[in-house]
Specification:
Layout (H helix, E strand, L loop, with lengths): L18 H9 L3 H14 L3 H12 L11 H12 L1 H29 L1 H10 L1
Helix pairs in contact: 1-2, 4-5, 5-6
Length: 124
């Protein structure tokens, strides 16, 4: 099973080894900005960025081709990686909304049918 919260090199969308593209996929930042930041960092860090880049190239796995079903799922998992609490709060909010809507449907059908209402109450 592939973990969607793990860092992967995105060789398919990458230029050299897919590290910048992997960082962009992991964080949700546009890959152009990641590449620009990496380029500037190469000159300002006196070789540390190069060593980190090589290390990520060697030790990080390639991104599985079936990691995301669609773009919406990719955005969801990027949100999970960026802010797990906010994502959990959003999911809870969605479930509360679904629960409220189901309660409205239940109320609509049971208010007109007393026998169905009594049967639902007995099941609780």
């Amino acid at each position: 099973m592939t973990r969607r919260t793990k860092f992967y090199r995105d060789k398919q969308n990458g230029k050299l080894s897919g590290v910048c593209s992997g960082i962009a996929d992991y964080t949700g930042i546009d890959v152009t900005w990641v590449r620009l930041g990496m380029f500037l960092s190469f000159f300002m860090s006196q070789g540390i960025t190069f060593l980190a880049y090589v290390g990520l190239t060697i030790f990080s796995p390639k991104k599985p081709s079936n990691l995301y079903i669609d773009r919406e799922e990719q955005k969801f998992w990027q949100g999970v990686r960026q802010s797990p609490r906010r994502t959990a709060r959003d999911v809870k909010s969605r479930f509360r909304e679904i629960d409220r809507r189901l309660a409205d449907v239940e109320l609509y059908y049971t208010s007109n049918n007393r026998q169905l209402s009594d049967e639902i109450e007995r099941l609780r």
